[in-house]
Write a structure and sequence with these properties.
Length: 441
């Protein structure tokens, strides 16, 4: 990285894909941990082990709606000779004052309710007459508010029950002192549920990075607006914002910025306040109106040590022109991607997505890769000295090219779920060959 003000460098050097990626990942650092409320921590990476403070469940409880009984009182029960027990009341979930079940007695119990003292098992209501005196086969209990008499009287039980039947034991899920989650865990809905269940209202995590995406080009029009001659719709900022969110970031899309260096510079400076990472698309090639280089010549604090943006040529196709560095007083990382839609998206997958996941504190930052058999009617060709990434569809150990090699073919990209990798020293890949595949799905 350059140590002076942002400047255009490296024009004569041809960087490899791996060299550029290494430069990005050695520069980007995980965000500092913060304490977040549970729902705000969704998608974040845990930075510390979480120990269970209270067992789950915290008490023995019923897994069925039915009757809490003593095993001896229902031994030998059958439809011909049912056990007849005195109902001493109800035990509902959340109830603190528990009944005592003595010999010849039963308590009507609800799912999740604590097993009352004296009871040894739970008989499902379907094994009883529900206290209605109408024989076996009832489908459920009548609501307590509508039939309070159901909590008293007698119940006929038509089947025996073994000890602890339909009882969830205290600590059968996790016990106090167990490790609930380990550092490095990505918090999804099940992990949030576990944290809530053990009483954690907040958790210490690395936050999801805030990524600002902006596209450049005076020819760009927002979707929904009318196209005039020479104009196209801005698809890159939508694609990259969606890709950033898919990678785990909180992403903000900025509307297309015209080809004016001062406007672009001002826009980028305004966005620094809410960005952990900036991504631009377009304006990094060698045209007279590629203004990203010009704009980044003095963004933020140009005298800040360690700041710098380099514009490079990479030995890859698509995506040869790239820019990378840090800007502003906080050294906010910035990746400048090409403007062609396919070049932009492939560059995102190879460089920006790993940067986002590094900011999150993840250790596995790359898309999965595999080997596949090339299924194609003709051989693939690739320029020597360039690592080519072709769109493809992967299924059952094979991969089929989708569309051509053009970097503007958005429709083909929409139907691809993989990238076929052709190495730098390979100019032809015959059908049936074994190829490396980056899985995008």
């Amino acid at each position: 990285m350059s140590s002076a003000a942002p400047r255009v460098t490296g024009q004569d050097q041809l960087w490899s894909v791996d060299e550029h990626l290494e430069d990005v990942l050695t520069t980007v650092r995980p965000l500092e941990p913060i304490e977040l409320n549970l729902l705000d921590a969704l998608g974040c990476v845990l930075v510390e082990d979480v120990t269970v403070p209270v067992s789950l469940p915290p008490f023995d409880n019923s897994s069925m709606d039915g009757y809490a009984v003593r095993v001896a009182d229902v031994a030998g029960a059958s439809e011909e000779f049912p056990a007849v027990l005195e109902v001493v009341g109800d035990v509902a979930a959340g109830q603190a004052d528990l009944l005592h079940v003595g010999p010849g007695q039963a308590a009507r119990i609800m799912t999740g309710a604590p097993l009352p003292p004296g009871a040894e098992s739970v008989v499902p209501v379907e094994w009883t007459d529900g206290g209605l005196g109408e024989g076996p086969g009832v489908s459920g209990m009548r609501a307590g508010s509508l039939a309070p008499e159901g909590a008293t009287g007698q119940v006929h039980v038509y089947r025996p029950a073994r000890a602890r039947a339909h009882v969830r034991a205290k600590g059968s899920d996790v016990r106090a002192g167990d490790r609930a989650l380990t550092a490095g865990t990505v918090l999804g809905p099940p992990q949030i549920a576990l944290l809530a269940a053990i009483g954690r209202g907040t958790v210490r995590v690395r936050p999801r990075p805030r990524v600002v995406v902006l596209s450049t080009g005076s020819e760009l029009v927002q979707p929904g607006e009318e196209l005039r001659s020479g104009q196209i719709y801005d698809s890159n900022s939508f694609a990259l914002t969606a890709a950033a969110r898919d990678a785990g970031a909180i992403a903000y899309r900025v509307g297309a910025v015209a080809d004016d260096a001062e406007t672009l510079r001002s826009t980028i400076e305004d966005q620094l306040v809410r960005a952990d990472l900036l991504v631009t698309t377009g304006g990094v090639s060698v045209g007279a109106y590629d203004v990203v280089k010009e704009a980044l010549s003095s963004v933020g604090d140009a005298d800040e040590p360690g700041s710098g943006v380099e514009f490079r040529r990479l030995a890859m196709q698509p995506g040869k022109p790239q820019g990378f560095g840090s800007i502003g007083p906080d050294h906010t990382p910035l990746l400048a991607l090409p403007g062609n839609p396919v070049s932009s998206y492939v560059s995102f997958e190879l460089f920006v997505r790993p940067a986002i996941r590094t900011l999150m504190g993840l250790t596995d930052v790359h898309r999965p890769r595999t080997r596949a058999k090339l299924t194609a009617d003709t051989a693939l060709t690739s320029p020597r000295g360039r690592r080519q990434f072709l769109r493809g569809r992967y299924a059952h150990g094979g991969v089929t090219p989708v569309g051509g090699a053009g970097s503007h073919l958005v429709a083909a990209l929409a139907h691809a779920d993989a990238l076929i990798v052709v190495p730098e020293d390979t100019e032809t890949v015959e059908p049936g060959a074994d190829v490396e595949v980056v899985l995008l799905g």
